[in-house]
Amino acid sequence: MSRKQETPCKVVPLREEFMALANRHREKVGAALFALVLAQMEYWQGRKERDEYVAEELERARNGRGPTEKGWVKKAADQLSGEIFGAGSKESVTRALGRLVQIGVLRRRKSGRSRVDHTYQYRVDLVVLGRLLGEVGYTLDSGRWKEMEGIELAPGSGEGNGKCESSPCNTERHGDESECHHDESKCHHATTITERREYVHRTHPKKYPLNLPRRWRGQGD
């Protein structure tokens, strides 16, 4: 029974196709939370600069490359946790967002150059999402993304892992915050602490000498 009010109760859908995707890709994130976070991010994606955003995704799908300037949504983990009615804590939602970034369904970048505001912006990669849904027997929501129906992907479209739009960025792959140093050609996610330390030293030898930062000391590979 819903409480009496002037506006309808809020609804967060637990969608079948996202649950199927979660069961394949969620790793250490709960399947239901993975699906809820993805559904909520897709909801917001359709409400900001939709036409320009879809045009960019169509170009990327057809040509294998294209701009990703439109449709960025600023969303904090605690805010998203509230939107899904506390189905996951801030930390759990952060892990879910990190996993979605890692598999390429979400792109992530910093919100401007402010040293105070550390909230990220996100952008759903419809090309990757459509490809991954196809692997589990589903397609994009034809009602929401009808323009993407029947599009034949260019070779290489929708392949690869998560996209980092700025440096440094964070991923939840290692269970802690790991440095991702991005240039125009690649985004490096080291698989062990040793590899990560060596990569950071090679790219920024003066800023990150080989003597370990304090937060890496005492951790094994």
Description:
36% of the residues lie in helices and 6% in strands. The protein has 221 residues and is an alpha+beta fold. The termini are far apart. The model is unreliable at 166-192 and 216-221 (pLDDT under 50). It has a four-stranded mixed β-sheet. It has seven helices and four strands; from the N terminus they run αααβααββαβα.
Helix-strand layout with pairing:
Elements: H1 16-25, H2 31-45, H3 50-63, E1 73-74, H4 77-83, H5 90-102, E2 106-110, E3 120-124, H6 126-135, E4 163-164, H7 193-203
Radius of gyration: 19 Å
Structural class: alpha+beta
- The largest sheet has its strands arranged as 1-3-2-4
Reading the helices and strands in chain order gives HHHEHHEEHEH
Total strand count, please?
Answer: 4
Q: Any idea what the shape is?
A: globular
Q: Major beta sheet, specifics? A: 4 strands, mixed
Question: What gap, in angstroms, lies between the N and C termini?
Answer: 52 Å
Can you count the helices? 7
Low-confidence stretches: 166-192, 216-221
